[in-house]
Amino acid sequence: VRSLYSKKWEERKNAITTVRQRLENIPPTEAAGYLDAGVAILQRHLKDPLHNVYVSVLELLNFICTRFIPQHNLHKMAPAVAKDLGRIILLRASDNDRRSAGETLSVVNEILEQDVKVAKAFLTRFLRSTVRGGQRGQATIVQNATESLGTPNAEV
């Protein structure tokens, strides 16, 4: 845990990779608690200004939303995850740094295409959001979702 808050970016990046590896091997009975801890880590580190660390955090976000939640049947927690992370994701998708914004959008698109229940939770959050400074990212995410998922889509 100490490495997650290190001043050295390499240690933060390695700690995030370690978190992902630990999440891959946890028992189903403890999955909900680990999901809460993972979301807390994501909330802090999705704001990391260093691109290398941010890419690792996006990989963790992708893993949690596309594999961890479906594998452990934690779909009931998806709206809470979307609520906690939606604002930060919209701000990073609107970022002036094209690398960060582009990678954020590609991860969000992948999440939206993988699991319908998780996609519904995130899209609901993105459509209702009024994040100041996140409108560009919000519009891009919604546009990409309508193109990839099709509209109207009764499942989402």
Automatic annotation (TrEMBL):
Tree of life domain: Eukaryota
InterPro entries given in the database record: ARM-like (IPR011989), ARM-type_fold (IPR016024), CEP104-like (IPR052607)
Lineage: Eukaryota, Metazoa, Ecdysozoa, Nematoda, Chromadorea
Any GO CC annotation of this UniProt entry: cilium
Record-linked PANTHER family: CENTROSOMAL PROTEIN OF 104 KDA, GLYCINE-, GLUTAMATE-, THIENYLCYCLOHEXYLPIPERIDINE-BINDING PROTEIN
Protein name: NOC3p domain-containing protein
